[in-house]
Every structure is written in C-alpha cells, then in structure tokens.
Amino acid sequence: MMSFMDKHEKEIKKFGMIKDYNASRDYLRDNPHLVREDTASYLTLWCVNLEMQEKQALVEVVSHQTIVMQYILELGKQLNRDPRSCIPGFFERIKTAERQYVEAFEDEIRAFKSRVKARAKEKVEAAIKEADEEERKSRLGPGGLDPVEIIETLPAALKECFETKNVARLQGVLAAMPKEDAIYHMQRCIDAGLWVPDAKAAGLTPASEELKKMNIAVESDSDSEYEAVDEEGEREERGEGDVTEMPLD
Predict the structure, then answer these.
(1) 10 Å Cβ neighbour count for 203?
(2) Which regions are flagged for Acidic residues bias (predicted)?
(3) CA distances from residue 127 to 27, 120, 149 in whole angstroms, order as listed
(4) CA–CA gap between residue 99 and residue 176 (Å, rounded)
(5) CA–CA distances in Å: residue 186 to residues 5, 169, 206, 218, 225
(6) How do residues 44-57 score in pLDDT, each as one tens digit?
(7) Residue 206, pLDDT score
(8) 120 partner at 20 to 30 Å CA-CA among 42, 56, 68, 153?
(9) Taking the model in full, what pTM does it have?
(10) Contacts of 50 (CB under 8 A, 6+ apart)
(11) Residue 165 carries which DSSP code?
(12) How many CB atoms lie within 10 A of CB 53?
C-alpha cells in the first residue's frame, strides 16, 4: 500500500481535488489503476490531516471524492466485477439516480466527515498530550520532580519567595517553620531544581545542609547520619576506613 501511495500520490491528490462528476469520470477512465482500496485509504488519511489543519473547504472536496471512490469499489463487490469496469456505471447512476439514492450518498459523505472530525480530534489531543509530556520531562529537576507541580504545592509564603526570588525572605520563612517541614520542602525544591545547592561532585547536597548554610538550625538524627556518612567517606579516602577484603575462591 505504501509503495502504491508513494508512486501515485500526485495522481491520487489530483483526483481528490476534482469537483465535477464528468471530470472525475474522465480522470478515472484515463487512470483506472487508481480504482483500488489503497486510493480510498490515502484519501481518508488526507482528509484527517486536512481536518487537523482546519482546512475545512478542502475537507469538503476530498471527502466527497473519497466516498465516490468507496461507492465505485462497493459497486464492484456487489456486481462481483472488477471495480474499474464500474466507473461509467457509477457516474451515470449518480447523475440520473432517484432522490433516495442521492440522499443515501450525501448521508454517507456527512457520516464520513463526522468520523474524520472525531479521528482528527483524537490525533490532535494525543499530539498535545505527547508534547506536554515531553515538555514536562524536559523541565524535571535533578531529583526527578517537576518544578511547576512542586511550586504549586508549596505553602503560600514559601511559594511567594521562589516566585519573587527573594532569598532573604526565603531564609526567614524557612526559619519560622518546624525543622521537619523546612527540610521536607527544601528537599523537594532541590529535587525540582527550584533551589540549586552547592552540590558535591558525588551528588545533591541534603536539604538540611542547605538550611544550615542559611544559618537555620536543623540538627536532627538524620543530620547526624549525613555527617557520619560524610566522615566515614573522608576516612576511606584517607585510607583510614575499615575495609573488609573478600576471600578469593
């Protein structure tokens, strides 16, 4: 199908833009190889793309030609004949048919356009969702948190500090908080990239250390653990740590 579309794309598009029954008949008579399901599929996809681009006038024309192609193909199935042989018969009938046949044809066009509109809407929504997700991923902080989401969940006073970039007020707001809350919010801000600490080469500086730099007392068991780990790491770097050698089998 893709090979056919690539080879005959210009011819298919030319047929899709024809607005006259006689011209459509003559064009298909001169290009009978276009009378196949692949052409109808291409025209359908083209309609969806045109709808996504909000080119309504073109959607009207191409939708009409899509149904023309589908009717010719369906006529071939009903008569158990090569659909290319049904080209003259279809156009003769559509021009002279009773009102009921014409109304059914027009109803099919309306239903097709409705399906095209629904499919285009789905594709646009999917594209927007994908773009939003890519944007969200691109702005994630070093700890994997979204700064937009985090700042909206901060206490109002703390949020205002980040929005106004007022470091002095930030220090005051954090100092007035219970130490557990201050550490919690500060760590989330670091993980979201709202606050960029003087990170060590090995990774992020804990929130408690950042608060200490602001002269905010946050001594706790967790701080002692950080200090113990750092002290042990320094001892190991100096060769003072306890290293247990694994036995070789």
Answers:
(1) 9
(2) 220-234
(3) 36, 10, 21
(4) 81
(5) 57, 14, 9, 12, 18
(6) 999 999 999 999 99
(7) 62
(8) 68
(9) 0.61
(10) 58, 59, 62
(11) T
(12) 11
Q: Which two tokens stand for residue 174?
A: 């954090």
Q: 99: burial class by Cβ within 10 Å (0-12, 13-18, 19+)?
A: exposed
Residue 203 gets which letter from DSSP?
B
* pLDDT confidence tier of residue 10, bands split at 50, 70 and 90: very high
Which token pair is 72?
Answer: 């010719």
Q: What type of residue is 54?
A: E
Q: How many residues does the chain have?
A: 249
Could you read off the pLDDT of 68-77 as tens digits, one per residue?
999 999 999 9
Q: What is the mean pLDDT of residues 34-39?
A: 95
